[in-house]
Design a protein that fits this description.
GO terms for molecular function: oxidoreductase activity. It contains 13 helices and eight strands. It is of the alpha/beta class. It has an eight-stranded mixed β-sheet, sandwiched between helices. Bound molecules: NADP nicotinamide-adenine-dinucleotide phosphate.
């Protein structure tokens, strides 16, 4: 690691910490955000039962939107509880729960078919579900892709493309992809942009780094939002990638190395799920960014160091590779 690289890391760390503390103490409110009215609008959220996803869905239901929670089909009990909590707290009757396993492209297809049929117009799609596995073992999904890339990016890529016609008839509409500032530490390259070589049996697990895979999938989120924005420019569908800020002490419970330091740091800069959801709400609802598309945001503003890392050429390469990976599930043939 060069001195320059170390200095850059320290700078990112300090910058993030200061921004997070500022946001925690004085960050945006509904008024600052100049929010669109979402009463009667249809919003799809992948994973409405995680800390951030549930809080976000609660806020949207509370504002009068119809909210569809795409919940992990392996954990529908948790999804059902989240749906009931949201309906109880917001007094909304327009919160729907639909099974979704982003790891399985046929499940994504089934989810999209069902939602698209039931809701011909979709105003906002929020790609929020994720995995961030703290294991050194290489894991692959059913389709054979590296698991972070598959769930965090490819599943969402497929879903967004399948729901695109419904978004296009509901303009102005938005696609928001929850990414992370860890995208700054990714190393995606054009030769293996969806990490196919990673998941190849020839690749040994010792050359696999979990956090790097997560970071790469989060960079893929940003590249995807960027290229989608470019492709849809002028058509009334705008796209955003966004870092929620850190909101989970559990992350540090399993992180190797300087755990005590990390816990102390988290206590100072960590956001509650509700506050992290607020930071995403900017891209979901604010009129201030309605004319922007394809950009990366953090704490309710454009995050330029992140945007500088998003390269148009890489975004195009990722699109082509992702399209090839999920193409079969985009055709009119039955998905299963
Ligand atoms: N938390 C943070 O500090 C932080 C920081 C920066 C960015 N973010 C971003 O914010 C978003 C939300 O984070 P979070 O911490 O609230 O997430 P989380 O608590 O880790 O929850 C992730 C959710 O995704 C679901 N999920 C996992 N695999 C799935 C699959 N195959 N199909 C469908 N759903 C699946 C999980 O369901 P199960 O529980 O049933 O597996 C869980 O409900 C993520 O995109 C994350 O990258 C978070």
């Amino acid at each position: 690691m060069t001195i320059l690289h170390t200095l850059r890391l320290v700078w990112y760390f300090l910058e993030f910490s200061f921004e997070a503390i500022w946001y925690k103490l004085w960050g945006g409110s509904s008024e600052d955000r100049d929010e669109e009215d979402v009463r009667g609008k249809v919003i799809v959220v992948t994973d409405g039962n995680s800390r951030i996803g549930k809080s976000l869905s609660m806020k949207l239901a509370d504002r009068g939107a119809t909210v569809i929670l795409g919940c992990n089909s392996r954990n529908m009990t948790k999804g059902k509880e989240a749906q009931e909590d949201i309906m109880y707290e917001t007094k909304s009757r327009k919160v729907f729960l639909v099974q979704l396993d982003l790891e399985s492209f046929s499940s994504v297809r089934q989810f999209a078919d069902q939602v698209a049929k039931q809701f011909p117009q979709i105003h906002i799609l929020i790609n929020n579900a994720e995995i961030c596995n703290q294991t050194l073992d290489l894991e692959t999904c059913q389709q054979g892709y590296e698991k972070h890339m598959c769930i965090n990016h490819l599943g969402h890529f497929l879903l967004t493309n399948l729901l695109l016609p419904n978004l296009q008839v509901a303009t102005p509409s938005r696609v928001v992809v929850t990414s992370s500032s860890t995208m700054l530490f990714s190393n995606l390259n054009a030769d293996d942009i969806i990490l196919q070589k990673y998941s190849s049996p020839l690749k040994t697990s010792t050359s696999y780094a979990t956090n790097l895979s997560y970071n790469n999938s989060k960079m893929a989120n940003c590249l995807f939002a960027n290229d989608l924005g470019r492709r849809l420019r002028g058509q009334g569908v705008t796209t955003y990638s966004v870092c929620s800020g850190i909101c989970d002490a559990q992350v540090f419970a399993t992180t190797r190395g300087a755990i005590m330091m990390a816990k102390l740091w988290w206590t100072i800069i960590g956001l509650s799920p509700a506050r992290a959801a607020d930071s995403i709400l900017y891209c979901v609802l604010s009129r201030r960014c309605e004319d922007e598309t394809g950009k990366f945001y953090r704490f309710e503003k454009l995050y330029q160091p992140g945007n500088r890392k998003i390269k148009t050429e890489a975004a195009r390469t990722l699109w082509i590779a992702s399209d090839k990976a999920v193409k079969y599930y985009m055709t009119d043939e039955p998905a299963v």
